[in-house]
Amino acid sequence: MIHTPLSVSQLREKRRPVRNVNIEHREKLSALERFALAVTETIGTMGFFLILLIWTIGWIGWNVAGPVTMQFDPFPAFVLWLFISNMIQLMLLPLILVGQNLQGKHAEARAQADFEVNVQAEEEIETILQHLENQNDLILKILNTVEGQKQ
Length: 151
Fold this sequence. Notes:
By secondary structure, the chain is an all-alpha fold. It contains 5 helices and no strands. It is rod-shaped.
């Protein structure tokens, strides 16, 4: 796509201030959305995985190898452990989906802002190149005139 470049003054008038999409996105979030994002970001860590792993090993280990009188979730069914695990999953699944949707919207906003900056930079570069070409033509004319006067 070839177009005539803008003048420097036109570029300055057209120039938009760079916006921080991260701040804009964060300011638009409600308290529940911030909570969903925090949960999504926390659950996606190795720390959370290790907590669940240690909890599971401890729970099953205690109810298999602990004192029989102190076992509270009978082997091999572990009904209480399964119930609690399923409740955690049922509660976290929709919350994680909400958080991922919010992260997706944020990524789209960042991509759009990047695109806008790139388009603006392309216009500015095109104008700079055009001005350099014009200066080059002017320098060549001056040199030709000077050399013509020498002869």
